Structure formats: structure tokens, C-alpha cells
Amino acid sequence: MATLELKSLRKTYLTEEIIKGISLSIEDREFVVFVGPSGCGKSTLLRMIAGLEDITSGDLLIDGQRVNDVEPGKRGLAMVFQSYALYPHMDVYKNMEFGLKLAGVPEKERSEKIQHVAATLQLEPYLHHKPGQLSGGQRQRVAIGRAIVRNPKVFLFDEPLSNLDAALRGQMRVELSALHRKLNATTIYVTHDQVEAMTMADKIVVLQKGVVEQIGSPLELYHHPRNLFVAKFIGSPPMNFFSAIFQNGGHDGSSVQLRDGTLLHVPVSPPDILPGTKITVGIRPEHVELAPASDDSGVVEVIERLGAITLVHVRCADGQIIVVQTDGFTTLEVDTPVSLKLPPQHCHLFAPDGLAFEACRRHPLAA
Amino acid sequence: MAIKTKRSTKIAVTCLGWGIALWLFFPIFWMILTGFKSEVQAVSTPPKLIFAPTLSSYAEVFERASYWHFTFNTVIISVGATVGALLLAIPAAYSMAFMPSKRTRGTLLWMLSTRMLPPVGVLVPIYLLARSTHLLDTCTGLAIVNMLTNLPIIVWMLFTFFREVPAPILEAGRMDGATRWQEMTMVLLPLALPGIASTALLSLILCWNEAFWSLNLTSSNAAPLTAFIASFSSPEGLFFGKLSAASTLAVAPILVLGWISQKQLVRGLTFGAVK
């Protein structure tokens, strides 16, 4: 098993810097997810760890050994590609055998290992099928099998589920989580899907434009986003934002005035900013409360019924749309006037530079 | 109505296709036919379509020149040039397809541009080079020249075929511990085999039919089939019967090879359905 350490890793293509000095440590047996919008550098970072891309500067350590210049096959890693990347001219058995053969594992041992992995992944009936004869899900299993059979120190997954349909993706997600518990191997998983990130990760690394925006457990990112980007990126439907004026604050909280004049006392301590500064308030749709209208502060514009929950899009007096998540039984209808209540303990405040105000008390699940 | 129109179009297109094919094939047909005529029949006007076939031209051709000697030279030169070109082109195309640099595109275009030069433009320097390296009238010499003239096209073709192979498959090989060499031989080559086969076939055909360098760089020892044909067109005048017989003998092997490997050729040219 293995630990990984990234020390100010940088990657430059021609003149453009893609990865801008990323430092990170990954513990033994940890399931780490790199998440971010496309083009954020998450796949490049994974490929740098794999050895498929050169490291322009910085150090990559696996189990304390610097491996910057070690060939991919000698780093003790195995990778599952988005496109599966199975060898089309070899059957399932040979696909799994290839790496073992190159490593000089004796034939009997190879066969035992492959049979064992095939049993784990329910691939036994397909051992002599070519990849072209398999379905997407089966190919994905073969790709995972090919990685497992080599018994690597670290598993690397590059958006492994994005080629599958929604139902299969959900199923494979659960299978992968179960597999991780069984194998107990250090895993790095790249995805742009926040559901995958939230459900599978021990630790999420949010990336944007080659920079780490935040590292933390899924609930830490959800309850205590470090900045506007993470707040927007984590959570579905995304957090609502609106502007407000900072009044004053201290260790016990900060007072802000919303545009309609409402005063809120949010339990977060302010950074060094002056009263009167324009800041951003954020609140998740599941935390906004709907109340019967006492005035014309808002009107229901769209209702999305998802069964268990309902998403209500409310147009406020100033024209801004706020999304509210309520239960599936609401009888609200379009054009109904409503007013919104923002529970201060669920509000997030962001300074003009985008950084979040520090919470006075950490959420118990995100300590 | 629509179906009828479609059918008549189909018939018209078929007729047109056959027409063009026959028109293209006619010279070859006429050559084969003339080979079985006597010299008098061969030049008679109007040309005779019905005649008593004779093997006299063939007999004379075999008497006057050693067909097998020329064929042997052609095979040695074509195969040698093709194998040599593939050995050089496969690593070159591999690096250009999977590890392109800023200059890859330019290099490819420059290589192709050398094919735009008329060969006669470099006749004197190549002749002098061949002479000073004692490669005149040797199979080795001609094979090297053929290999080098075809190299740009072969690299281009292989480059195109290799680009069809998804890079992650090769990367998976590298992750599995394959060296660059193993990655090329155990992963890339089996996948690109149809493309490599059709490239090799094209190279064989080009070398087999090459006449300019054969006539200028060989005389007797290393003369290939193209020189064999040419030897029936000179000093005492043209003898169409023998010339045709010789030409038929010269093109027959490559024609048969092309026929047999038709499927492979088409598969190679439509390569790309690996995913």
C-alpha cells in the first residue's frame, strides 16, 4: 500500500502553464477524487502522477521515493481509462495477462490471479471474448480487472464511468466503492461528476485552471466551501447567490444588510474588511424556507417536481431568481406570491475577493 | 416511380462503371492478345481479333533472355526495398503519430515535397554516388534507391494508419510496463497490421513497376523485369509480338498478387474501425 506526495507540481505546454504548482498529500488507502470543470487540469494532473506526462517542475513522491523520472510501468500504479483502452486484438484473459507477462510472472501464477480477479468481477464467462464482443459495462469491468490483477500500490481512474449510461453509472459507482473497501488500496479518481465525487471520496480535491481551490472531505466542502468557486461547484442544484452590504462583525458573527433592507446576523467571522463593503451571500436551495406571502417579495416562476423533492424557482422583487428545494408534497403553483426566509445559520458570506468568511463553529459532520 | 428511377440510375451507373473498367483494361487485354500473335499478325491493319494463337513469341522471348533471372532480381529488389522502407518508416511514423513535435507537420510536408521533384533531376548525382560506392548494376543499389524514393509515401501512409489507433491503448500498454519497443511491437503493430500490409503491398507494386532507375542504374547483373521489357524494344526495331509477350510475363506476377490481396488492400484503405 502506498502514500503519495505532490510537491508544487507544475506542467507547462509550450508557453501555457496548465498545472500551477499543486501540493497535496494522499494517505495510505485513501480514496481521493480530483474534481473540477473540464479544462481544469484534473486529467493532466492524474497523467503526471501516472507518468504519461512529464513533470515540468516540482516533485512527485510515492512512498517517500521521488518518481519524477521513473517509467509509468515501474511506478507501481495501474490506471483505468475513460475509453477503457483495452487491447482490441487480445481477448479478456490476454488483456489481463499482458502486464503480468511483461513483469515476468510465471504462467501458473498468472492464471491463478486472472481467475481470481475474473471471479471477483464476474468476468469468468467472458475470458475468451474479445473486447469488441462485450458491452460497455463489461468492458469497464475488464479495464478494472486489468488494473487489479497487477496488484498495484495505487489505482488511478480517469473518468471511468462517463462513457456509461446513467443507470449503469449508478450501479458501477456502488460497485467501485465496494471494491475499494475490499481492496483497501490508495485510489485517485478523476471526475467532473460531483455525485461521484461526493459519494465515493474520502477526500475531494477541487481544481480550477490548474490551481487547487479546496481540499477536504465531501461534507467539509459542502458545509464549509472555502470560496465562491467551490460553493458554486459542490451541491446540486447549485447554491443561490446575491449581493449584500457588510455592516460589522466579530468572533460571534457578522451582520449584513440585504438589498431589500433585511438585516442578517450570520455566525461567521469576517476577514479584514471595512463596513459598507459589498459582499456576496450564498445559501443552498435546500436551506431556503418558503413562507406564505405577506407582501409581493417573490413570485413562483417555475416548479420542477422530481417526486421526492420539488424545486421552486422564485423571482424576487429585484428580478433575481432564487431556487428553493422543498418536499415533494408542496401544493404551490406557478405565479403564487411567496416570501423567502434565509436561516442565518445556513448562510455563507464571501468577501469581494471570493474567499468565504470563517465559520464560528464547524459543522459536526465536517469537523 | 421512385424505385423505378432508382433502378434505372443503378443500371446506368453499372454500365458506366463497366465501360470505364473495360476502357482501362483494354491496353492490358490487347497486350495479352498480341503476345499470342505472330509478328506479322501483330502489326497487321486492320488489327485482327480472331486469329490462330501461337506461342512463338513466348518461345523466342524465353530463348533470347533469361526471364527467371530478371524476375529473381525484381523480387529481390522489391522485397528488399519494401522491407527496408518499413523498417525505417515504422519507427518514424510511430514517433510522428504519437510523439509529435513542433516540426512534425513540416517534416512530413518536406518529405512529400521530395516526391514532387522529377527523378531525372537527381539522375547525375545519384549515378555518381552509385558509381563511387560500387553499387551500379547491383540489386542492393537499386533496392536502396527504390526504398528511398518510396520512403516518404510509406511514412505518410503509416502515419495516417497509426493515427487511427487510439493513444490511450498505447498508454495502457505503457502503464502495464511495456517499453517503447514492446509498446510498438506488441500493441501498435498488431492493431495497425491491415494498414501496414496495404502499405507494403503498395510499395511492392511501385518497386515492381519502377523503370526509370532500373534502366539507368543497371545493365545486366541486377536488371529487373522492367529492363527485360525494354530490351525488346530496341536496336533492330519494334517487335510487338515479343514485346507484348515479355510485358505480359513481367506484369503477370504482380497482377496476380494484387488480385489475391484485393481484400487486404481494401481493408487497409478503410482501416479505422478499431474502436
Automatic annotation (TrEMBL), chain A:
A GO MF label: ATP binding
InterPro entries linked to this entry: AAA+_ATPase (IPR003593), ABC_transporter-like_ATP-bd (IPR003439), ABC_transporter-like_CS (IPR017871), ABC_transpr_MalK-like (IPR015855), ABC_transpr_MalK/UgpC-like (IPR047641), Mo/tungstate-bd_C_term_dom (IPR008995), NA-bd_OB-fold (IPR012340), P-loop_NTPase (IPR027417)
Domain ABC transporter: 4-234
Alphabetical keyword list: ATP-binding, Nucleotide-binding, Transport
Pfam families, alphabetized: ABC_tran, TOBE_2
A GO-annotated cellular component: maltose transport complex
Domain of life: Bacteria
Protein name as annotated: Sugar ABC transporter ATP-binding protein
Organism of origin: Gluconobacter cerinus
Automatic annotation (TrEMBL), chain B:
Entry's localization field: Cell membrane
Xref: InterPro entries: BP-dep_ABC_trans_perm, MetI-like, MetI-like_sf
One of the record's GO cellular component terms: plasma membrane
Main location: membrane
Organism superkingdom: Bacteria
Keywords from the named record: Cell membrane, Membrane, Transmembrane, Transmembrane helix, Transport
Membrane topology: Multi-pass membrane protein
GO biological process terms on file: transmembrane transport
Ranges where the ABC transmembrane type-1 domain occurs: 71-261
Signal peptide segment: none
Membrane-spanning segments: 12-33, 75-96, 108-130, 142-162, 183-206, 239-260
Keyword match Transport: yes
Family: Belongs to the binding-protein-dependent transport system permease family.
Protein name: Mannitol ABC transporter permease
